[in-house]
Design brief:
Layout (H helix, E strand, L loop, with lengths): L15 E5 L7 E2 L3 E15 L8 E16 L2 H5 L8 H11 L4 E6 L11 E9 L13 E8 L4 E2 L1
Antiparallel strand pairs: 1-2, 1-5, 3-4, 4-7, 5-6, 6-7, 6-8
Length: about 160
C-alpha cells in the first residue's frame, strides 16, 4: 500500500497550500493549517416514474471546495500592502473581501520522504473567514474555504 501521510513538520512531505493570481508567478503559502478537507460533491437529479417502484438518478455537476482551519499569521492574513493587487500584498483577508479569483496548489503530502506526492490545483474564491480567539485558545484561528471555480486538476 502507498498511503498518503502528510508528516507534519517534515519538509517536502508535509501538506502545503499555495495561492496566486491566475497566471501569476508569485505564490503566497498558507501557513499553520490545522486541518484540511477536500470536497468533491456530485449533485444528483432524482425523479420517479409510474412504471417503477424505485427512484431514478443521474449524476450532474459537482461542487468542489477545500475547507480548513488555520492559525492566523498577521502578514499572510492582512498582507504586506493593503492597497496592492497580489495575494501576497492584500493577504487572505483582502483576497476574500475583494472577491479575487485565485489559482491554488494543494500538495497532499507523500507516501515516503521523497516529495513525490500528488498535487490538486485549480481556481477558487476564498470565503468562510471567521477569526476567533478566546482565553482557552489565545491565538487567532479561522476557518477558511476555497470554493473551487470549475474542476480539480491532479498532478
Amino acid at each position: 500500500m502507498a498511503y498518503i501521510f502528510p508528516a507534519p513538520g517534515v519538509a517536502g512531505v508535509e501538506a502545503t497550500l499555495r495561492i496566486a493570481l491566475p497566471g501569476g508567478a508569485t505564490f503566497l503559502s498558507i501557513p499553520a493549517m490545522q486541518d484540511i478537507t477536500v470536497n468533491n460533491s456530485n449533485d444528483i437529479f432524482t425523479w420517479t416514474q409510474l412504471d417503477s417502484g424505485s427512484k431514478q438518478n443521474v449524476a450532474t455537476t459537482a461542487t468542489n471546495s477545500l475547507d480548513m482551519n488555520i492559525v492566523l499569521d498577521q502578514t499572510v492574513f492582512f498582507g504586506t500592502n493593503p492597497s496592492g493587487t497580489t495575494p501576497t500584498e492584500i493577504g487572505i483577508f483582502g483576497v476574500s473581501k475583494d472577491k479575487v479569483r485565485i489559482a491554488f496548489e494543494l500538495y497532499l503530502g507523500d507516501t515516503s520522504a521523497g516529495a513525490a506526492g500528488k498535487t490538486l490545483s485549480g481556481f477558487a474564491y476564498i470565503s468562510g473567514l471567521a477569526p476567533t480567539v478566546s482565553a482557552d485558545a489565545p491565538v487567532w484561528v479561522s476557518p477558511l474555504t476555497l470554493t473551487v471555480d470549475g474542476d480539480f486538476s491532479v498532478a
